[in-house]
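Input sequence (182 aa), recorded before submission:
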Amino acid sequence: MILPIYLYGKAELRKPTEPVSEGELNLSELTDNMFETLTVAEGCGLAAPQIGLSKRIFVVDGSELGDDYPECKDFKQVFINPEIIEESDEKATYSEGCLSLPGISENVVRPKTITIRYQDTDFNWHEDTYTDFKARIVQHEYDHLEGHVFTDRISPIRKQFVKSKLAAIAKGKTVSRYKYKK
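Predicted structure, token format:
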């Protein structure tokens, strides 16, 4: 089922999320719906707050980016109760966009490499290190779990440039190619 994506201005996007407990959610159905929603919206990541669920879960699918970012070719994964446990000092700048902020993209500086600890859908723990664009996707989605959006990480001058666009999205004056919730 395709779920509506919550847009900038919805309070759910600014709340830090709660851990997922085993047996609490139908994870198979939820993650299938999240991946289907992500595919239709043509994104590479979707966090639970973006569908109105205040839980620590996000999905990524970077496979469509494989031509430009080879490390993402087979990168399709579910992250439950993630915690970034290490970040590199080396930073990288890329242009980011977000399904919850349609029509806005800005350069964001983030650590080039991260190590993250998380659970899979069977609640087994994993610890993985990601670099380059994989790390970028994971950090972007992780921010949603903490109540942040990517524009929180841009320079003050760039924030002034996007302020009116963000206000328009928050007021429901936006158009998107996917199902969304104002």
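Checked by second reader. The helical segments are 27-41, 132-145, 156-170.
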